[in-house]
Amino acid sequence: MKRAYYSETITDFLNESESSILGKLSFNHTNRSLEELQKSAWVKQIRILKDQLKKIEGQIYFEFSIPRMGKRVDNILVIKDAIFVLEFKVGSYKYEKHAIEQVIDYSLDLANFHEGSHNAKLVPVLIATNAGQETYIHSDVIQLKDVVKANSTTFKNYIGAFTSQGENIDALKWEETIYKPTPTIIEAAQALYKGHNVEEISRSDSGAVNLSKTTSELNRIIDNSKRSSKKTICFITGVPGAGKTLAGLNIANERIKSNQDEHAVFLSGNGPLVYVLREALARDMVKTFKERNEKITKKNAKRNANSFIQNIHHFRDEYLKSDKAPVEKVVVFDEAQRAWTKEKASSFIRKNKGEEDFNLSEPEFLIQVMDRHDDWCTIVCLIGGGQEINTGEAGMNEWVQSLKNSFPNWHVHFSEQIINNANYVQKQELNNWLRKNGEAHHDLHLSVSLRSFRTEKLSKFVYELLELNFKEAQTSLLSIKDKYPIVITRNLKKAKEWLRTKAKGSERIGVISSSGARRLRTTGINVKNSIAAEDWFLNGKNDIRSSYYLEDVATEFDIQGLEIDWACIGWGANFYLDNHEWKFKYLHGTKWNTYTKKIDQGYLKNSYRVLLTRARQGMVIFIPYGDSNDFTRMPKFYNNTYDYFKKLGVVEI
């Protein structure tokens, strides 16, 4: 794939006419509505670079693609042993903060996801054409913490400071190396919604299951269902962060765009995820229209986003009032393991919706709704094994039980992991029924975590840690610690400072904690103070409601299905080690009580599993000292857990 609109040696660029260069750029530029404005900017860039690059050898690129971000870098220069990443602000008199962040983000994207740039010397440069001269710290630029600030006449003065007589980069080989982007779910949703396909925004290396294979398998099943007038249900599984939600968004988006009559929809019971994705899509749509000199109101943008992503409970309530078949033929249920049990669903609906005769689990009712179609339909369930975090969540068992008891004629397709891993279907009779009545597929399981692009083994470390498999956890930690820093502290101020020093550009930081860690309030972590998820996850560094401020705390319910780059995890007294076993507690009034039921203990352990797998690049775990004068914060609630992390080899800061 040609990554740039224009690519030549610097010598050929200097010798080529301005009109020829402009013609090549215009030919590759697809947005006609911006062409005149863009042409003017390109002309100025060409003239400045022709002046600044005299007697310089290397390779020059215009409009170099950054797939994960859905953007293009103004220019990249490969000169000797350095790669200069240039962002032009034509006519600007200032080095604006957002522009500095933008060029650092481009450089980080190359460093993290472009194979040829992993160990290269990357130099972010902001050229504000009319600005004055400003100093920079060389080491900060090399570490991508700052940028070279140049104007239209000073850039040439800085080239020598970042190039040496070492081995020169082979620009053509560099350009052709694999790009392995790992977008956040927010970035992925925005890119898919804009029309990008999953191959453009997801990893394709041999170490990860290619998401396009899962999409192809689902499309094959859906097309066969449509052709044969069959009703089918598919269960996709995966480790935390493996891309289940991305796979679901992708299939819903593909079916909407290629098959208008299917009216596919993505449903989730995860309220924060729905709010954040809808808001992100709406904001991005408004921004995109503005860039094209077109107008759309935020209200209309939200209406469009809301039709694509819906709350599963609102969908359920709509069909409680009607016995008609839904307009949707393809429905994707995200985090289907969190659908409600019969007891919880019946109790809630009788009490809040006035349906006295309702006596179904949420899975059974949702299948029943889709079963109203006369011809065909397909349900896609995204299942996270061992990720139920709240009382009344049914897990995979209830879906299978509903199919077995009430919908035996449905065609069942499932990931082979479901019958091989007890985390999914705990009841052997249901496991046996699936083996006999369903069809197992290898490509419906996503086995490698993509959330943490720095290491694919984080989920294994977290599993061994929580299962108290000391040697296995220690080995896992050793295998990831160089790429994925995990540190521990008893000082919250230190933890926050660590986050701030680690994050670069717009990398998102935040404090997260268990909803049951109520006594962390004395340290400054108040889990009872609810957040607006869309503000916490989407707003910028200058907004006190955003995660960047490190004031508002997201719980497992806020952050499940989402992620940030660097996290501080506040570890509470509700889950602690004593005598080499976990203690499962909840605060009732002024007293800690013990969860005695295995299912409740499982929910609590899973809540910490969620917290420990939310950071893409690294985390600091904060465990306070406690206070022997406060029986709700006794030191024993914290010390053994802290010692456990230390013995595993987690570094103290």
Question: What layout of secondary structure does this protein have?
Answer:
Blueprint: E1 4-9, H1 10-15, H2 18-28, H3 35-52, E2 59-66, E3 71-79, E4 82-89, H4 97-113, E5 121-128, H5 138-142, E6 148-150, H6 156-162, H7 171-176, H8 185-194, H9 198-201, H10 211-228, E7 231-238, H11 244-258, E8 265-268, H12 271-291, H13 298-308, E9 309-311, H14 312-320, E10 330-334, H15 342-353, H16 362-370, E11 377-383, H17 395-406, E12 411-415, H18 417-420, H19 428-437, E13 438-441, E14 445-446, H20 458-466, H21 470-480, E15 486-489, H22 492-502, E16 509-513, H23 533-538, E17 553-554, H24 556-559, E18 564-570, E19 575-578, E20 581-588, E21 591-594, H25 598-612, E22 615-622, H26 639-648, E23 651-652
Parallel strand pairs: 4-5, 5-6, 7-11, 7-12, 7-14, 8-9, 8-10, 10-11, 12-13, 15-22, 15-23, 16-17, 16-18, 18-22
Antiparallel strand pairs: 1-2, 2-3, 3-4, 19-20, 20-21
Helix pairs in contact: 2-3, 8-11, 8-12, 10-11, 12-13, 17-19, 20-21, 20-25
Could you explain the architecture of this structure?
The chain has 26 helices and 23 strands. It has 653 residues and is an alpha/beta fold. The chain has 3 domains: 4-176, no CATH class; 211-268 and 310-446, Rossmann fold, CATH 3.40.50; 458-652, Rossmann fold, CATH 3.40.50. Strands 7, 8, 9, 10, 11, 12, 13 and 14 form an 8-stranded parallel β-sheet that branches. A 6-stranded mixed β-sheet has the order 1-2-3-4-5-6, sandwiched between helices. Strand 20 and strand 21 form a beta hairpin. The radius of gyration is 27 Å and the shape is globular. The chain starts with a strand and ends with a strand. The model is unreliable at 204-209 (pLDDT under 50).
